[in-house]
Amino acid sequence: MSNQHSAAEEQGQRHKHEGPRKHIVAFIFSILLTIIAFAMVAAGEINTTFIYIFLVFMALLQVFIQMSFWMHMKDRGHIFPIVGILMGVFVVFTIVIMAEYWAWW
Fold this sequence. Notes:
By secondary structure, the chain is mostly helical. The longest helix has 26 residues, at 79-104. It is flat. Helices cover 78% and strands 0% of the residues. The chain crosses the membrane at residues 24-44, 50-70, 82-104. Its main location: membrane. It is a multi-pass membrane protein.
């Protein structure tokens, strides 16, 4: 078994371990985003339209952090899951837009 590992290491195919530092930073950043979003809603004196836009922005930022650090979508070799997720997002947005047009007519 050591021959297989040494052959893979020589060819540069060994998986590089990032360590816990990036995961801890991503976790703290996720917690901070959640606290900021909760504080914005709890304040209550801010324009509701601004809060909705801000919450959507915070949610998209949270999704980016979760997918890049926890699901390792930033690594090489994840093109098919990324394409699948993007296609799913496209289908969901299309369904929501079509449902809104259907309800308005």
